[in-house]
Design goal:
Elements (H helix, E strand, L loop, with lengths): L1 H44 L28 H12 L2 H19 L9 E4 L5 H8 L5 E5 L7 E3 L12 E6 L3 H4 L3 H11 E11 L5 H9 L4 E13 L2 E11 L25 H8 L12 H7 L19 E6 L8 H8 L8 E5 L15 E4 L2 E3 L3 E7 L15 E5 L10 E9 H8 L5 E6 L5 H11 L7 E4 L22 H13 L3 E4 L2
Parallel strand pairs: 1-2, 1-4, 2-3, 4-5, 8-9, 8-15, 9-10, 11-14, 15-16, 16-17
Antiparallel strand pairs: 5-7, 6-7, 12-13, 12-14
Helix pairs in contact: 3-4
Length: 515
């Protein structure tokens, strides 16, 4: 009995250190578990490495790559990432970007201390290259994040505050692929510090018109470097590198601002690259046609549309302004929406038509805004005269072509319908509606009022907001019905119309003769 008690006492004594040891092990495991949970949060939820996080237990190695996911497909994705990171394409691209960023450091556009952002980078290889060469504080954004290099975001919605970065990089032609380049540009301007640098890589050459449209999106940025690089694979044999410096006085100053393009003195400047396009446009018809109803209609086959000569991708909005629209089928439905080359862009249409006969048919049209007034040189009430030449059979729904006149100048001898309508200052409306960053196509068929409206567009500088004009000029043309007789509706001659067309082209405005 005594022996048994002694054995029991020895077992009890031995159990004390074992319990303490178990407790210590449990505490240690709990600590490791807490660290693991925090690590998983930083990598999977915060989407950033410890280099850019505000709070971490430890730092990750510079070359560490990891993606943790909670869904069932995580394992296969991690396996795919491992294959990606070891592929020849990945290694070649990282070497390429490392060389690019080394050169940018040498040029003073980037430094190891720069807070750097790579925009629209699906795999983060440019971010990896930045970190490899010593730019520690670098992160990427993409719609689908690849952690820890890339977090969720897009060029049109950068998830960082104003003036957060010293350096922004847009590689692999990501800017050119954006459906909203103006918003993309505004976000870069917002998040880039004043005196910071933005670098863009375009994978294919752009025409001068397109390049200047791109620069217009960054109106207070300065071009500091243009460079052509040899690409790293066959899909990108050459890369055009553009480096811009942010000279805006405050954050977001690069945003769209129509006032920036307005001119208080009414003048506007047409750059040389736009004037160059006039040289390759179709020639004007110098000699008055004897059968204008045939010659001018055939001329549409010779027209060189602006959108067939240049890339129009770097524009904010795409607008078609039909001044004197008449019915929907007159030109909007029959010509513009079917024949004008739009480069897969969606155009919003403004139909300006004073004749209320046509207003109802525009009510259900999508992507169209009806302006039910007469385009004029100021806001005032006008007389709307409906008449035709003898023998002229141009009628729509029982009405002939309408012409507007100031009330005090309406001829008492005029025989026909006369209505009072509201006219509006078209040039002022245009300046308040569109900006230089918009692509604006205008068709004008206003029964002689073009001799009032075009000078007003020049006077106010609104003419420079229009990229392309299709103009029907009205003159005392030969009549189809009556050989040897001219129309009595219009006082202007063909030479005066030709002078109007030439003045537009000489000013750098691409205008086409319409019928």
């Amino acid at each position: 009995m005594k022996k048994k008690c002694t054995v029991a006492t020895m077992e009890h004594t031995a159990a004390k250190p074992s319990s303490i040891r178990n407790l210590l092990i449990r505490l240690l495991l709990s600590g490791v578990f807490i660290i693991a949970i925090r690590f998983a949060y930083v990598i999977s939820i915060a989407g950033e490495s410890c280099n850019v996080s505000d709070f971490c237990f430890f730092s990750l190695p510079e070359t560490f790559s990891l993606s943790i996911d909670t869904d069932s497909g995580a394992g296969s994705r991690n396996s795919s990432l491992s294959e990606l990171y070891s592929s020849k394409e990945w290694l070649d691209s990282v070497n390429f970007y490392s060389s690019v960023f080394h050169d940018l450091i040498g040029g003073g556009y980037l430094s190891p201390e720069s807070k750097s952002l790579c925009v629209e980078t699906p795999t983060g290889r440019d971010v990896f290259a930045l970190r490899e060469i010593g730019v520690k504080n670098a992160v990427g954004i993409s719609k689908k994040s690849v952690k820890p290099l890339v977090k969720s975001g897009t060029g049109e919605r950068i998830p960082f505050g104003d003036g957060y970065f010293d350096f922004v990089f847009s590689g692999e032609g990501s800017f050119a692929r954006s459906a909203k380049p103006a918003v993309f540009a505004a976000e870069i301007a917002r998040t880039l510090k004043p005196e910071g640098f933005a670098v863009f890589h375009f994978t294919n050459p752009k025409d001068t018109y397109s390049f200047n449209s791109f620069l217009d999106l960054f109106h207070c940025f300065k071009v500091v470097k243009l460079h052509v690089l040899e690409g790293f694979d066959s899909s990108m044999p050459y890369i055009h590198e553009t480096v811009l410096k942010n000279e805006c006085v405050d954050y977001g100053a690069g945003k769209l601002d129509s006032d920036y393009y307005s001119h208080s003195n009414g003048n506007c400047y047409v750059p040389g690259y736009k004037k160059d396009l006039i040289r390759i446009a179709e020639p004007l018809i110098e000699k008055e046609p004897l059968k204008p109803w045939i010659t001018l209609k055939r001329n549409i086959m010779n027209i060189k549309y602006l959108s067939s000569m240049v890339d129009i991708s770097f524009k904010n909005r795409y607008l078609y302004v039909d001044v004197g629209a008449r019915s929907y089928g007159s030109s909007i439905g029959s010509w513009f929406r079917k024949q004008y080359p739009k480069q897969n862009k969606t155009f919003h249409v403004y139909a300006i038509e004073a004749d209320k006969t046509f207003h109802k048919e525009y009510g259900m049209k999508k992507g169209l805004t009806l302006i039910p007034y007469a385009a004029w040189v100021k806001n005032e009430t006008l007389a709307f005269e409906i008449h035709r030449d003898p023998g002229e059979h141009v009628e729509v729904k029982g009405r002939g072509m309408g012409r507007i006149q100031p009330l005090q100048t309406t001829g008492k001898e005029f025989v026909g319908e006369v209505e009072k309508i509201q006219g509006f200052d078209f040039a002022n409306w245009l300046k308040n509606t569109v900006s230089k960053n918009d692509f604006v196509v205008m068709k004008m068929d206003v029964e002689g009022t073009e001799f009032d409206l075009i000078p007003r567009l020049f006077e106010t500088g609104a003419i420079c907001l229009i990229d392309e004009i299709f103009l029907e000029c009205h003159y005392n043309r030969w009549q189809r019905c009556c050989p040897g007789q001219r129309s009595s509706k219009y006082e202007k001659t063909y030479d005066q119309c030709l002078e109007l067309f030439n003045s537009l082209r000489q000013s750098g405005i691409l205008v086409h003769q319409w019928f």
